[in-house]
Amino acid sequence: DAGVTQSPTHLIKTRGQQVTLRCSPKSGHDTVSWYQQALGQGPQFIFQYYEEEERQRGNFPDRFSGHQFPNYSSELNVNALLLGDSALYLCASTRGNTIYFGEGSWLTVV
Amino acid sequence: GDSVTQMEGPVTLSEEAFLTINCTYTATGYPSLFWYVQYPGEGLQLLLKATKADDKGSNKGFEATYRKETTSFHLEKGSVQVSDSAVYFCALSDRNRGSTLGRLYFGRGTQLTVWP
Fold it and tell me: Which of A56, A102, A50 is nearest to B103 (CA)?
């Protein structure tokens, strides 16, 4: 049983560009959440998707958007990248009382 | 709002020492509580969880008890190993409509280093 898978694992973007990160949840998990983890900090909640709709959103600007597909996979899009968007982006999938995380996508903005 | 306060690190111990990492929380409802571990360069791994008051979560020798009266979920291990060196995060989750867990609120993390 595959766990939560994310792609790409590492990427470098230039300030002002746009990026798309992808996540496939653990089998049987229908809820996907995204978190941003800056270096030396705890993860911060960006948003959560269920049944292809955004159900909860954290304190992130509209530059951060997402999507969930019918197979429960999800994308995180970030527009107009800033240097401060450099971080580890974690995807988590949920079923019942359990939340599992992927290995993350390391984004560096230069 | 909901939040987690976690003991600041770093924590440095000798192998076989006793470990305690303190975690307290603030929540309006009845949250589920978690400890996650992060090894260098990796994502988060669920270490243990507790879903209601007085529940004890345990895994790999680590334990934590959900104490509603003191709003705490302290992580303990009787004898640490070098391989336990990592960053430990305490977290809580509220609930969405129904029974599915909502967003996670994380503490700042505690770096643990164990020397042989």
Answer: A56
Q: Mean pLDDT throughout A60-73?
A: 96
What's the angle, vertex CA A31, arms to CA A13 and CA A40, rounded to 5?
Answer: 45
- pLDDT band of residue B97 (cuts 50, 70, 90) is low
SS3 content of chain B, % helix, strand, coil (to 5): 5, 55, 40
Comparing alpha-carbon positions, the chain B residue that sits nearest to A29 is B100
A60 touches chain B (CB under 8 A): no
Helices and strands: H and E segment counts in chain B: 0, 12
Q: What is the pLDDT of residue A94?
A: 87
Out of A41, A58, A100, closest to residue B103 by CB: A58
The closest of A10, A82, A21 to A47, measured between CA atoms, is A21
CA A21, A27, A33, A38 dihedral sign is: negative
Which residues, listed in sequence order, are joined to residue B38 by a DSSP beta bridge?
B44, B87
Residue whose C-alpha is closest to residue A4's, from A106, A104, A97: A104
- The pLDDT value given to residue A1: 56
Beta-strand relationship, A87-95 and B11-14: unpaired
Neighbouring C-beta atoms of residue A2, cutoff 10 Å: 8
Interface of B with A (CB under 8 A): 32, 34, 36, 42-46, 49, 51, 89, 91, 93, 96, 99-109
Bridge partners (DSSP) of residue B87 are B38, B111
